[in-house]
Amino acid sequence: MSFDLPLLESSFFDLRTSLGPQPKANTNIVLVTVDQETTELLDGIAPLSLDIHTRFMESLESYNPRAVGYLIDMNRVAEANPELLRSEWGPRFVDSAKRLESKGIPVVLGSLFDVTGEVLPPYPLSSLSHSIARIHKDGNVFSDDKVTRRALTYLYDRPVFHMELAQKMALVSVGHEPPGSYYLPEVDAKYFFFRYHGDPANQPYPKVSFLDVLNGKAPKELVKDKILLVGTLMKENAQDFALTPYSKNPFANPKLTVHANILDSILENRGIARAPTWVDGVITLFMICFVVFWVLLSKPLYGVFATLGIAAIFLFANILAFGYLEIWLKASQPILGVFLSYYLVVPYRLILEYKKRWDLQRKNELLVQVEELKTNFMSLVTHDLKTPVAKIQGLAEVLMRKASERLQEGDRETVNSIINSTQELNHFISSILELNKVESNRLEMQSQSKDINQLIERSIEQFIPAARARRIDIIQALEPLFPIRIDANLISKVINNLIDNALKYSPEDSKITVSSREVDGFVEFSVSDHGIGMDQEEIQNLFTKFYRAKNDTTTRISGTGLGLYLTRYFVEAHHGRVEVESEPGKGSTFRIFLPLESPSRASPGLKADVSPSFKDRILKTINRIN
Ligand code: ADP
Hints:
Residues 600-626 have low confidence and may be disordered. The protein starts with 5 loop residues before the first helix and ends with a helix. The chain contains 20 helices and 22 strands. Strands 1, 2, 3, 4, 5, 10 and 11 form a 7-stranded mixed sheet that branches. Strands 17-19-20-22-21 form a 5-stranded mixed sheet. The protein is rod-shaped and about 160 Å long. It is of the alpha/beta class. The chain binds adenosine-5'-diphosphate. Residues 497, 501-502, 505, 529, 531-534, 542, 547-549, 554, 559-565, 588 line the site of adenosine-5'-diphosphate.
């Protein structure tokens, strides 16, 4: 959990700094830059000599700024012309600064820092307020990329440049610490992660020309009551630039702007506070649990989305927390935790899946074996049953025919009941044998050109006695049809089954309509009844093997639950389809659609079949018109 990932974390830090919301720059901080152009115009060579700086200070007196932070390396200035320091210019510089201070305008000189400590400004300038103005570069403590992310506020308990300037203006109290300040005992210093107010390369702070101030030509309102930071900005001097989270280009971010950002952060009391380690730990733990949960328990694709999603949401929330709440939640730890846990859990998930699939495969193999055994068993049993049942039925029928008159009424009923039961049993055995044939793919289609109406009429004839017995009227509405190629035996079974069902599930004294017609390239054959009907759930299960609806009528009436399963199978074998409409208590309509042109007829080898049927159709149409 406390795994430290400085380089990754510093990259996230930079991302949040430059991408997230950023505070507006304080326009009371004004930069006065001594650049290449100014130097060339004034003196020709850098650094500018002390007399120019002195005259600049004296000119400033008439502008009444709020404060002056002098970030020019005065030791270099003195080294270039040591005699100027000892002549009138040194004391004049000090006097001018003191006059400003006496007007309540603090002047602070920024000094350097080396192994010996603060490098004091040269005498007599050292008599003025001075403090270390160091731009901190990340070295070995955070990342090692020399980028400026934090700023020194106190060294050996003394405020450094920005803090001293702010305190001297009485804009912050003595000993003030910006949010997120922390103490480093090994250097006896206090730091804070200051806020950048926009990209330093875009110069978010107003500027005033050094030359204009020197000549008294700078607009008064640009300087009056402003906090002036005076510093150098030589294009080719890497010392005048810093690396920032916005750019690691060595000549992109002026150091003077970075100083302004630090001072701005102190004045506005802004700073990034690091969240306690336990908060980072809890977030990391939560994110890892989330990823592990999704990867283990959801579909693989959802696992990927969950991982990427939580990482994206976290980064977004992290940028917002950084930009608005100024809280630094560690990003490297949770993000790395999320992806590591993903890569560790995925193989585990794969092993689980593999095991599951292997189990399923085994189960499947077993099921296939059991199914085969069952089919063989059923086939054996039904075959062996078929002959004795047929014998019983035959004998009972013979008995009925020959000895009917000699039998008493009760005995006649018994023989009749034997005949009915054996018929039912026979029907059942035939259905099971049919099912076995279908399931073991032994069904062979014997296609021939046939007029379906003939099959329908023949089937209705068979059912007339049964219909009469229950006073059910079978109405025929058959339109003339073209013969189509079908297996007459299978389609007869389909027709029989539908009419048989309609009779079974209709009350006495009702009507059944059997119709046929041609629609959109299909022969439609339908059977409608005014029987018990079915609800939606029953309709959905209708074609399932062995399904029978559970109601008073169906429990009274015997059936196998195989009729419609086989019906659909036979119809689909002809590339047709079955449709059902039904309402409980009102009745049902079953429609069978068989294609006029069976797909096999389109094959080149069977083309000869096409023309006679086409001729038939023309003839039929002429007949119909007549
Ligand atoms: P069986 O009629 O032998 O039970 P089927 O497969 O032919 O088997 O029919 C399955 C079930 O569908 C029947 O048990 C019955 O509940 C229902 N059903 C079939 N046809 C009708 C119909 N015309 N009216 C009402 N219910 C029907």
